[in-house]
Predict the structure.
Amino acid sequence: MTLMRLSGLSLSRGAVPVLDRIDLDVGPGEFVGLLGPNGAGKTTLLRAALGLLPATGRSSLAALAPDARARQAAYLPQGRDIAWPMPVEAVVALGRIAHPDAAAPRDHPAVHDALRALGLTALRHRDATTLSGGEQARVLIARALAQDTPLLIADEPIAGLDPAAAIGVMDLFAGLARQGRGVVASLHDLGLAARHCTRLVVLDGGRIVADGPPAAVLTTDLLARVFGIAAHLADGPDGPIFQPLRVTPRA
Ligand SMILES: Nc1ncnc2c1ncn2[C@@H]1O[C@H](COP(=O)(O)OP(=O)(O)OP(=O)(O)O)[C@@H](O)[C@H]1O
């Protein structure tokens, strides 16, 4: 079973190819870290997969009607600003819109669970626009969780979070995958990606250049070639350890 299937997905901006024949299947139980340097095409890939950008090729999600798509995949966009002066729990309840129970969404258990999972229960009555950047980020993750979908697509979900919150979100996503859901998250923290993801997909110049288990993907050669860095890589007692060390000249 696949939760998302991309076949030959391509997108150009003018004459410049930004996505080049992307093939990618994501199944239940996978926590896929989508990696790549700035401008590699990660956001474009996630948005094209969801049908939010016109692309050639095929995306199983983009092919769905909007309601069905919203029940199949929740999306956490890269932008984190909350513009609406609404209570936190009302923002989180927006995740229920595609479900038939949307009439009383604030009382739905998925909303309570999402607030609790993101440590937001005490903030649930606060005007969301008054929260700090990291708190707002957690509210938007909670909104995506409340959508209660088989697949979660998150664009840089841990950007701007403090270390405990970032690890908490990665643990949460790994837990969703262990429950049989699928998660695809673009990430710049290669260390957390290596420790928590079941699979890493590396984009460079709009192409997938590596795809596999973290230890197989994060090689010295790939780090130098794609990211232009040298790093310390080791097997720790409870997972891989990754410490970026310095910039290397790219080939
Ligand atoms: N609206 C646009 N018009 C022209 N070029 C664009 C547009 N949106 C994105 N691009 C270009 O497409 C490429 C991929 O952008 P994208 O945002 O997908 O990268 P990314 O991997 O998510 O980067 P980052 O890590 O910086 O968020 C970049 O070179 C970017 O400049």
